[in-house]
Write a structure and sequence with these properties.
Length: 147
């Protein structure tokens, strides 16, 4: 009974983060983009990318956590492999950030948006995505593998 309840909690957490990510995507693309908020408030892009990195790092963590079969597996992996889990989270966030930047460039290339920030903006955005992942990894693992 308790194992099925814990299993349901794991998936509810993952679904919650996916809903938050979808809502954030909608906020960024529909009302804020329609109002040209990212052109008027140049700094608005920074917190959105940090928050996106934060959310997708949590999604990556939840995906890793959901693939573990029992609570003993969770304890073993979380206590002994913080470096591997952090690396997987960073790679996951990096891939999502790169895919997002390709999406932004495609929107510019095909004429759906008027301006593209350029290569420097792309690098800053990916760096902010990674910063969000660093916040999650620090809070989850306190970077014990760096000591």
């Amino acid at each position: 009974m308790i194992n099925s309840y814990l299993g349901n909690i794991k998936y509810k957490i993952l679904i919650t983060y996916l809903v938050i990510a979808a809502f954030t995507f909608w906020i960024a693309t529909v009302p804020l983009n329609t109002l040209n908020a990212f052109d008027v408030l140049w700094w608005l892009d920074i917190p959105f990318h940090i928050f996106g990195g934060f959310i997708f790092a949590n999604i990556g963590y939840a995906l890793l956590y959901n693939n573990l079969s029992s609570p003993t597996d969770v304890a073993t992996v979380l206590n002994k492999n913080n470096q591997k889990i952090s690396f997987c989270i960073f790679v996951f966030v990096l891939i999502v950030g790169i895919v997002w930047e390709i999406y932004e460039f495609a929107m510019y290339y095909y004429g759906y948006v008027v301006k593209w920030g350029g290569a420097a903006d792309t690098m800053i955005d990916v760096g902010n995505d990674i910063l969000g992942a660093v916040i999650v990894c620090y809070n989850k693992f306190k970077f014990t593998w760096l000591k």
